Amino acid sequence: MTKPLDVSPGPNQPPPPPLIAVDRAVAELRRGAVVAVRGADSRVAYALAAEAATADSLAHLTTLAGTRPCLILSNRRAAVLGHDVAAPAARVDLPAGIDPLTVAWLADPVARDVPQPDLTKLTMQPVAAGSVPAASVALAKLARLLPATLVAVPTAGALLLSGVVVVDVAAIEEYQQTAARSLRKVSEARVPLVDAENARIVAFRPADGGIEHLAIIIGEPDTAQPVLARLHSECFTGDLLGSLRCDCGDQLRGAIAEIAQAGSGILLYLSQEGRGIGLVNKLRAYQLQDDGLDTLDANLQLGFDDDERIYLPAAQMLRLLGVERVRLLTNNPLKVEALAAHGVVVAERVPHVFPANDHNQGYLRTKATKGGHLF
User: Could you tell me what this protein does (predicted)?
Assistant: First the structure.
C-alpha cells in the first residue's frame, strides 16, 4: 500500500526578522542603493554593490560615510588579481579620485573595454571571517551580483541616515540555512507532462517570501521504500531553450522519463542557476568560457567558488514530502554526501549519463576531471 505524501504547510508563522532584513538588503543592493551592515560590536559600515558603482553612487557613498570607500573582493577574485589571501575576502585601499571604471576592472573580468588601473598603486589586505566587509560580499552573492562591494566606515560623529536598510552580519551568514529551514508548501497542482502524465508540482517558499523551489512528483511514491529522486538545479538556457553548452536539458527530461518508467519518484527543481551564481553571472561565465576558460575556472575568475550551491533546501523539501530515503539519480558524489549530511539516506546512487555533443564535450570533461562527477 502506498503511503500518502505529507505536504501539509504547517502552522503559519511570521518570518524571522533576520530573514526580512536580509531580503530587504538584497533588494536594495540589486537596485544600486547603499545598505548598512552591522557587526557583532554594533558598529556599522555602508556598502554598495561594486557593479552598481557610478560617479554619483560613489559620491553618495563617500558623503554618507564622510570617508573614502574601499573595495572588498572575494578571496577568489583577489587570487585572480595575483593576491592570495588566507581569508574570505580582501580589502583594496583605493586611491583618491577613484572612478567607476577602475572598480569595474577590478571586480568584473568581463569588463573588457575598461582601462587597466596601475596595480602598483593598490594594496590588498585580508578581511577576517565574520567581519562587516566579508559579510557585505556574502550579501552581494545572495543578491546574485558579482561578489564585490564598496564599503565605507562612517567617521566619528557620522549619523546613520534614516531610511537606509540595516542588516546584521549574523543574519547574512545564517540566511541560507534559516531560509531553507523555513520552507513550506504554498501550492500544488496536477500537471501532466509529455513523458509523465501522472505528475503534479508542489511549490515551496521560504518564510521571507524569497525564491521558490519546486518538487515534481510522478506517480505515487512509496515513502516506506527508498524513493527514486533527482536534484536538478534550474538552468534557463538548457532546460527551456535547449542550449547545447550543457547537458541540463537532457538530464531534466531524461530524469522525468526515467522516473515515470520506474513507476514513481520525485524530481526537485532547485532555484540555484549556474551552480548557485544566478543567470546573469552564468552568462558572464559563458563569455569567459568563450575566451578559453573551463566552466569551473570561469566561476573563479568572477570571484565565486566553483560551486556555490547548498542542499539543505532539498533535504527540507524531502522531509516535508515524507521522504527519508532515496535512490538518487546523479553523477555528482557531492550531492550524495550533502544529502547524507542533512539526514537523508541515499540508499543507492543511480547513474544519470547522456551523450555529449560538439558544444558540451569540454564542459562534461571538466565536470569529470575537476568536478569529480562519475561518468
Answer: Catalyzes the conversion of GTP to 2,5-diamino-6-ribosylamino-4(3H)-pyrimidinone 5'-phosphate (DARP), formate and pyrophosphate.
* Whole-angstrom distance, CA of residue 87 vs CA of residue 79: 11
Verify whether residue 77 is a known catalytic residue.
no
**Dist CA 268 CA 64 (whole Å):** 44
Render pLDDT for 241-260 as a digit per residue (tens, 0 to 9). 999 988 899 999 999 999 99
Strand partners, 171: none
Specify whether 309 is catalytic. yes
Which residues are annotated as part of the binding site? 230-235, 246, 248, 251, 273-275, 295, 330, 335
Computed over every residue of the chain, the mean pLDDT equals 89
The architecture (CATH level 2) of 184-272+309-369 comes to: 3-Layer(aba) Sandwich (3.40)
pLDDT tens for each residue of 121-169: 788 899 999 999 999 999 999 999 999 999 999 876 555 666 889 999 9
CA distance 232 to 210: 19
Residue among 307, 327, 349, 365 flagged as catalytic: 307
* Residue numbering of the annotated binding site for Zn(2+): 235, 246, 248
- Calculate the CA 36 to chain-centre distance: 22
Instruction: Name the strand (E) or helix (H) holding 229.
Output: strand 227-233
Band of pLDDT at residue 9, cut at 50, 70 and 90: very low
Residues making up the annotated binding site for GTP are: 230-234, 251, 273-275, 295, 330, 335
Annotated catalytic residue within 77, 91, 200, 309: 309
Q: What are the extents of the domains in the chain?
A: 17-176, 184-272+309-369
Classify domain 17-176 by CATH number: 3.90.870.10
